[in-house]
């Protein structure tokens, strides 16, 4: 009888969890639909100037025109390639730097203030310098994406490594473990949640870096469309590009969230 009661209570608990999750999803969809409805209604009733803020219907028409003339996928492909490459390089280099700084505590103490300064530095200030060094092309845009996410990834992952308990490391050293064994058996597993958090942060930072790079120098991409639309006062094009950008960023974020679920399991 006790086991049956516990099973029923557990089943009710799981049912409540699933119901709450469905309610959250429904609420998210409702918020999005409500925002789009108010946006469209505000444009139709002239609560604001639709020339400036556009409207969902005009955004859809603009995206349809870009799709019809074949330029939509060209610009999406350019920005997506630069962002994914910048994200992967920034994450990989940031994680490797975090490992190096954990491995060499003295180096970490020396470089710590410089990491703080680099993290606070507006990376867009380096844009003109990158253009001179690397050239006006895809490479400078990718490097901008890497720079924006590199320091954040390094600091986040390093903090996860340093949070590993000293007691476990002391126990491993007492048992004769090497530094590599301590890292792979204790520090790295303890730092996995922070590594996943760094991936989530790096996704957004990579998009920021790439779009900033496309603002400065690009001949294709969503950032180029935003700048071009602003220059020729085609603000429907600007809002359409921003909308596509939001969709792509959300998809990339949820891909990382899906990876997080797999890793945690």
Q: Keyphrases for this structure?
A:
MetI-like fold, single chain, about 260 residues, 2 domains, mainly alpha
Describe the structure in your own words.
- By secondary structure, this protein is an all-alpha fold.
- The protein has two domains: 1-48; 54-264, Orthogonal Bundle (MetI-like fold).
- The chain is built from eleven helices and no strands.
- The protein has helices spanning 2-44, 50-53, 56-68, 71-103, 105-120, 127-134, 138-162, 166-174, 179-216, 222-231, 235-264.
- α6 (127-134) crosses α7 (138-162).
- It is flat.
Number of strands: 0
In the CATH hierarchy, what is the superfamily of the largest domain?
MetI-like
Task: Return the average pLDDT rounded to an integer.
Answer: 82
Largest sheet: none
Could you spell the SSE succession in H and E letters?
HHHHHHHHHHH
Helices and strands, with pairings:
Elements: H1 2-44, H2 50-53, H3 56-68, H4 71-103, H5 105-120, H6 127-134, H7 138-162, H8 166-174, H9 179-216, H10 222-231, H11 235-264
Helix pairs in contact: 3-11, 4-5, 4-7, 4-9, 4-10, 6-7, 7-9, 8-9, 9-10, 9-11, 10-11
Structure in a nutshell:
It contains eleven helices and no strands. With 265 residues, it is mainly alpha-helical.
